[in-house]
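Morning, I've got a small favour to ask if you have a moment. I'm working through a protein record and want to make sense of it properly. The fold is given in discrete form, as structure tokens running alongside the sequence. Can you walk me through what the tokens say about the fold? Thanks so much in advance, here it is:
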Amino acid sequence: MGQTQKKRAMEAILLNDNIEISYFDPFALFDSVKNEFMELFPLDNVQWKPEGGSTRIIPKLPVKLYAEDGNNNSSGMSKYKIKNPFIKLIIVTCQSIDEYRAKVRPLLREWLPEKDKSTQVAAGKTSTPTFVENNELPSIPLILIYANSEVIESNLFSSTSIIEKADKDFANAEVLELRSVYKSPKAKQDFWNQLKHNIKSYLLITFQNRLNTLQSRLAKLTNNQQVQERLKIREQLLHIFLQFRLEEEGKIQLETIEKEISISKKKQLEVANGVLEYPFSYRIPYLLSELIQDKKLTRFYCYKVYFIWKLRILSINELNNDIAFIKIYKITKQFLRYMQMLFSEDLNVIQFKYSVIESVLKLLPKLEPSKLTAKQAECKADLIYMKRDYWLNGVLTTTNFKILYKNFNFNKDIPFKFDVAPNTFTNEDLFFETFIKFNKELIELYNQCDSKRQRIIDILSLEIGIVHYQRKDYENAILLFISCYEYYIQSKWNIIGLEILKIFVDSLVNCPKITSLEFDGSVVPVGTILSNAYLNLLKLSNTEEDKTIWWEKFINVDRIETVENDANLMYSSEGLLDVAVDKYVTLHTPNEYTIDVSIKEFNLPSSMLTDSMQLTLKKIDHDNEVVVFENVNVKIDKGNLLIPMTTRHINYGKFKVDSLLINVGCTTFIKSFETTEQIIYLEPIFSRDNADIIIEQAKKLELGKNGLQLNFVNIDDEKVKDLTLNLSVEKDDECMNYPVSFNDSDINETIYTLTMDDISMDTINDGICLPYYLQDPITAFFLKSELTYKKINTVTGELTTYKEIKHVFIQCYLAISVSVEDIFKNEAFYFKFLLNSSMREEPVMLHESSLESDVVTQDRYDIKGKLSPEDSILLTSFSGESCINSYRLVTKENCKFNNNDLFFLHIKYNTLKEQIDSLLTDAVLLQGDVEWFSKFAQWKSFWQLNILPRLQYDYDKFTKERVLVVENHTLDMNYIIKSLLQRVGMHNDIKMGIIQCLQKLNENGHKLNMYDMKEYAKNVPQRELVVPVELPPFAPFYLIQFETQDIVKQVETFTVGKAIPFQITVTDISHQWEGHKEEQEDDCYIFEIASSNDWLLHGKKRFALGQSDPMILRLSLIPLKRGRLLLPRIEILGQDETQTARTDQPNEFDTVLVL
């Protein structure tokens, strides 16, 4: 059926109030033009412009054309008593003027209303003629003169056509020509187009005149008592708005009518419910105003008229959009709700509601579900759902048929009728098939909707499953129940879920041939499914007896599954076991940590014997790192509700509780902690028996090199086997490269592995120094350490595997800086070292400095200058403090200085923070209390890793007053007390001791005495920096002595301008160095006295040094100014003057007094 046919079919049901045009055919002429006439309708694109409004376009305006004769008149007339049509049409013909005068004109006079009843002035036409007969609404009379040839009246003075003659004779009517013969097809088309245009104009004029008439009448009804009169006019207005397909105007009138009815009903003493009309029809035989006048209005008729009018208004436009579907659904639902309220005990109420829904569904477009929009499919499905329920209610009420869990509350004493659709339930099988057909149709429609209706689809599928179960079609029932019951349980609809689950289990048990089912692409054994179902039934049951039955069934099935299948059921413990995890982890045995799990509620009818239990903690920000605590063969019952869980695979850091798994046979009960976000901190806990490898920055380093110190604790090759240590460098996500590598030539070698093959007794005792190489100038980096080993149980001899993962923070900067200066002297050499603190924030305590030669050269030199102060020297960078440490090197007999000889400066130091941290711990916190220390010992690493790094001391206060205090009182005690110390299960005495120590440190500080400072300072492991130094490369070396001659030695003073005789002795002492002969054979050096503003030179100033040794130069110096004058500077240069020889001038800075 096409869209046009659908529209007309809908109009046939609802909109039977079309535009009415009557015709009178006294000469039987209409059949000759009937086809052309009917093609004019419906009129399209009719334009109406209301007064003061914008033009409205009516796309299609249906027109009803009926004959004025005894047979058709009554059926064609409107039920709203608008007896006169919009246009009254008469078709006449004549062959001559005489025939017109004798036959046609009398007929027209008789057909037209009498003159005294007409509103048209006969004197002449001033507008389109209309007439109102007997106070009815205006209409237009139209005379169509059928003439295929022109009929003309002629006289001596003029000629008049028959059309003009009729128009003049009947001023109160329109006169047009009607033809059936045309000169051409175009002429025919033009003729009928013009006629169509004229009819449109006449209809619009009549429509506007009728509106004006009704509105004029309405304006006169100002009395509040004239409700019925106003209502009648409103109904007429609504009628003509519906005739002209004006939706908005119709809505306004309907809303006003509802208000008027409400006012009218209040004035009546009572309004009866009336009689329920069955079968339901869309006919409206009476005006509401008439029924109110006759006091016959009923609630039923009132609601019915509202319902039909609303549907008629909606039907003005196509019912193929979402809004129309929604409104139809709401209108229908509201109407049926009113009917149920009024006629709940009426015998026909069920079939009445069914028939209404059925009739409404016929109004909707007949489209496949896939061609409907989501909202259209939803509204249609909701209507069909109502229809199905009314059908089911009617069948169950009037027959003995039953569907499990489908009940309708109705009065059993009332013999309700349901005679509609009897061919849908003639027997029980047909009844079930019809029900399934309904549900499948609904599922198909709801599948087109949004996902929010998915639950309804599950319910409908479930109902089909119940029917299959009721018919003992267990296999089909299983396929439908398998997902539905889980929905109800998850939705907390426990009563429904319990019953459906019982049906599902019974169906599964009654299908012994089914051994497995498919879930989401996976094949699951039936035993696993039954175990899951029995546990659900156990949870949903209310009595201990039922719980015991289901628990025993579960145990029996689980035992069978354990033997026959490897499948494992994961089942939530919620509702069976209420589990809580302790917030603290403790050390159970060396390298074995434990945490307690408590059972808050135990809802099983008997004890549970577990095979194993696993508590999983997931590291925050590192989801791939987990710690699993375990226990095995635990019996859980009401007498054992605290279960310790242990692990030998530890990982330190911040964790959240992830899950608890309880394994019983083939079933794993799982408790998820995703919503609780419980945080647990795993911190290292000390035990003297713990096996460990301590990783830190090496305390002894050579300048320019970096290394890690690996110290072995309780690593004994007799007890520890298969040890593996993996060290991996960590980097920030933002960085491209790793900051550190373990290979100087390969920057990507960032993993180091240590095994038992790399460990000897020496390394166990002394540790291993692992070199590493910085790729960027950094001060710190992180290492991830993974230590795995096996320990031998001394009693059983069994091997137990242990694993420890920790993230180690390495500070790789040097707190002390060193520079060196070379000083050359005759028969001696000096190293001058300058020592400073390298960082402003990190003062350094210098304990000792010593220079040593290597093994090869230790017998060649006598070294003096070791620095070993009684009290350590404090070096700070912010005040420019430094320490100079000089060493004198003298060769032993028959030895010479060699530039290949290597020496090492050993500097022993600590940072001031290291020393104060140790003093705070030993002298203030512990104070020699052995008993308190025994409790504190296991938390010492927590103190060192989490608290000490937060302390920023006032170093000035400490150095001047020996007071330990935090700088500017900046320690956040609130965080330490409420957060930091709450992470671990530390004894309250230990917590209070730490808090009191830190509070005093943050306020007034701790005053130390000198003795304590010296004694406790010995506990600090000293750092050592080894600085390799070499003798400078060989260069010619001369001893220069500048002396006055003997003649003037007794002269104590000299005067300006008087010459003073001097003697300069130059001695080559290069022989004190290895390799001097080879060097001097190729080089020639120049002796030169530099010019000076203080002296005037009298003698040889510049000459080449020869082979004679020593060389003596005599000259005179004339002073040019008074005062203590420095002797002139002497240089020894190479021949090209780019090289300079080393010189030792003992009197280089002597002065001469000139007066």
